């Protein structure tokens, strides 16, 4: 009976170790071989609306409400910014945004204001609270395709809902110039996103 018990115990422990090693190696393997979602373009160069961006890595939500910008903010919304997960994995390792990196900025209006500064009071206190979605913007890194704008292309998928199914690249004077002049790293506003500020 003792020999049988010891044998059974060894088998159980060995199985547990083997299972841990097997799934551990699978985990490491999948992390190293994560499939990237790369930008999809039409024949005439329009960018297709990226898929499943709500499942990407969330990096932050700057806010520039109308009430704090003379009633005419350029982007009077929360800017909910996501980065494609495979690109983020590479960035974490290298500190550089790889070719094909996609940032998705989903615009989200604030709930109607109650105070002159655009804020309102909710159970958590006075502040700005997210309301309806209001379109989106996308940035893509492709040094060859967007050489004239320092390797990044900027796309607008409407500043209202629904989002457009595809979009043409914006002129340098529309978006790129501001990123080139003010963004902290590689035309990306990493100063606003601690997750990316390396």
Give a verbal description of the structure.
This protein is an alpha+beta fold and 198 residues long. It is built from 3 helices and 9 strands. A 5-stranded antiparallel beta sheet has the order 2-3-4-7-8. Strands 1-9 form a two-stranded antiparallel ribbon. Strands 5-6 form a two-stranded antiparallel ribbon. β5 and β6 form a beta hairpin. The longest helix is centred in the first third of the chain and has 31 residues, at 2-32. The termini are far apart.
List the topology elements.
Blueprint: H1 2-32, E1 47-48, E2 57-60, E3 77-83, H2 85-94, E4 102-110, E5 120-122, E6 125-127, E7 130-141, E8 152-156, E9 166-167, H3 172-182
Antiparallel strand pairs: 1-9, 2-3, 3-4, 4-7, 5-6, 7-8
What is the CA-CA span between the terminal residues? 61 Å
Helix-residue proportion: 25-40%
Radius of gyration: 23 Å
Mean pLDDT: 86
Q: Please give the number of β-strands.
A: 9
The number of distinct helices, counting runs of at least 4 residues, comes to 3
Order of helices and strands: HEEEHEEEEEEH
């Amino acid at each position: 009976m003792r020999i049988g018990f010891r044998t059974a115990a060894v088998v159980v422990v060995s199985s547990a170790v083997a299972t841990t090693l097997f799934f551990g190696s699978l985990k490491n393997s999948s992390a190293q071989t994560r499939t990237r979602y790369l930008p999809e373009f039409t024949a005439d160069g329009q960018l297709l609306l990226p898929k499943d961006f709500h499942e990407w890595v969330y990096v932050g939500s700057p806010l520039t409400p109308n009430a704090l910008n003379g009633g005419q903010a350029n982007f009077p919304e929360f800017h909910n910014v996501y980065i494609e997960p495979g690109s983020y994995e590479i960035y974490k390792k290298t500190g550089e945004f790889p070719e094909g990196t996609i940032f998705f900025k989903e615009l989200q209006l604030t709930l109607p204001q109650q105070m002159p500064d655009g804020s309102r009071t909710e159970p958590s206190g006075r502040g700005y609270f997210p309301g309806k979605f209001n379109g989106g913007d996308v940035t893509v890194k492709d040094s060859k395709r967007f050489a004239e704008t320092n390797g990044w292309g900027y796309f607008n998928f409407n500043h209202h809902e629904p989002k457009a199914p595809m979009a043409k690249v914006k002129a340098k004077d529309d978006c790129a110039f501001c990123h080139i002049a003010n963004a902290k790293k590689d035309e990306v506003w990493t100063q606003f996103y601690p997750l990316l500020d390396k």
